[in-house]
């Protein structure tokens, strides 16, 4: 039995900011002198990002008119973790519902009451009763729907959801699974003037995604078939990417060595995935790489010897949305599915995402 992604939907908050707007906010927030402001501006200029979205409107405002961050020098009083969590809780449901609506529009005739399993994914907010129960209530799902929450796994969280769904659909042929990824990364902005914060603050953004996954016997629409998964963790690099709960939001540790670790390990992981799938690189005709940053995509281009247009969807998502953690690769899959509609010869897609651990999550999808 084969598991099918039947439809994909996405959404973003209403606040859209250019990288230049966000740079101006960061320059003031970090209280940079002229020399360091030039350095930060260069980082933003080469980020590969034009626009990002946030539930907060402060990133497009000037100090003195902030509604979330403090208006004194240094953004004092600086929002606490509880205050950030409250903003997550007040925004997560509506943004998730927008993504679900976008998803279900592509699946005409699908009745929401058919959903047997609900999986929510996030590493930027948690509460209980949580988003899963709010979705059951808001969507009118059966009270017996089976719920799973995947939290704090970082940018590869969507892969864990898809693996869980694959197991479910293969065991329960009548399963209809709804996956919702919701990430409000900008809530966890950190103001300390460090290189880690410079890098994280130049990348992350807010967004949500939704997918319906069914057994092939249930699926009336076919976007991708789930083919093969493989994961590997490099614990010697665990300090290069970390995500901890602090008193003033979730604190990201992200070093510039991550791309080097990916460059060193990704080909070996890909080879093991292909061996497990009984395929070779010659069988791969498209790529869906999580755009963790421009440098990560360039490393993948180099290792896999990709031409300019073979990884263009990932670059496009990075450019238009930034890094929305676990939701981002779903945006890539959504855009890729639209591209492949006119290329029926495309078959096997190689997909990767990376996160704390350092974890490599990989999968092969088949264009249906």
Structure in words:
The protein is α+β, with helices and mostly antiparallel strands. The chain contains ten helices and 13 strands. The protein has helices spanning 19-29, 34-45, 81-105, 131-139, 157-171, 195-201, 258-277, 294-304, 312-321, 328-340, and strands spanning 3-11, 15-18, 51-54, 117-122, 146-151, 176-184, 206-215, 224-233, 241-246, 249-254, 284-289, 348-355, 359-367. The radius of gyration is 20 Å and the shape is globular. The mean pLDDT is 93.
* Amino- and carboxy-terminal Cα gap: 14 Å
Strand proportion, as a percent range, falls in: 25-35%
Tell me the number of strands: 13
The value of Rg in angstroms is: 20 Å
Helix content: 25-40%
Count the helices. How many? 10
The secondary-structure element order is EEHHEHEHEHEHEEEEHEHHHEE
Strand order, largest beta sheet: 5-4-6-7-1-8-13-12-11
Biggest sheet architecture:
9 strands, mixed
Unreliable stretches (pLDDT < 50, length at least 5) are none
Mean pLDDT: 93
Principal-axis shape: globular
Instruction: Specify the structural class.
Output: alpha+beta
């Amino acid at each position: 039995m084969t598991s099918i992604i039947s439809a994909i939907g996405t959404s973003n908050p209403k606040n859209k900011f250019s990288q230049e707007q966000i740079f101006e906010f960061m320059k003031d927030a970090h209280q940079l002198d002229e020399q360091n402001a030039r350095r930060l501006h260069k980082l933003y200029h080469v980020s590969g990002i034009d626009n990002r979205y946030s539930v907060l409107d402060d990133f497009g405002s000037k100090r003195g008119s902030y509604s979330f961050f403090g208006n004194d020098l240094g953004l004092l009083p600086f929002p606490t973790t509880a205050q950030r969590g409250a903003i997550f809780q007040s925004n997560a449901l509506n943004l998730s519902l927008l993504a679900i609506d976008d998803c279900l529009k592509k699946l005409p005739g699908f009745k929401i009451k058919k959903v047997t399993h609900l999986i929510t994914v996030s590493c930027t907010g948690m509460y209980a009763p949580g988003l899963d129960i709010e979705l059951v209530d808001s969507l009118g799902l059966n009270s017996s729907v089976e719920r799973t929450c995947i939290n704090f796994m970082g940018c590869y969280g969507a892969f864990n959801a898809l693996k869980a769904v694959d197991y479910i659909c293969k065991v329960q042929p009548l399963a209809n699974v709804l996956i919702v990824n919701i990430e409000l990364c900008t809530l966890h902005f950190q103001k300390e003037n460090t290189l880690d914060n410079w890098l994280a603050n130049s990348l992350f953004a807010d967004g949500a995604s939704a997918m319906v996954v069914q057994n092939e016997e249930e699926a009336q629409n076919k976007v991708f078939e789930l083919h093969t998964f493989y994961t590997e963790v490099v614990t010697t690099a665990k300090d290069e990417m970390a995500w901890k709960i602090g008193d003033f939001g979730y604190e990201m540790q992200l070093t510039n060595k991550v791309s080097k670790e990916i460059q060193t390990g990704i080909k070996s992981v890909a080879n093991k995935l292909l061996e497990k799938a009984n395929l070779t690189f010659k069988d791969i005709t498209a790529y869906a790489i999580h755009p963790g940053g421009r440098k990560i995509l360039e490393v993948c281009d180099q290792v896999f010897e990709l031409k300019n247009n073979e990884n263009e969807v990932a670059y496009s998502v990075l450019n238009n949305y930034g890094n929305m953690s676990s939701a981002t690769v779903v945006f890539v899959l959504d855009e890729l599915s639209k591209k492949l509609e006119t290329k029926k010869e495309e078959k096997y897609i190689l997909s990767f995402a990376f996160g704390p651990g350092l974890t490599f999550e990989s999968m092969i999808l088949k264009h249906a």
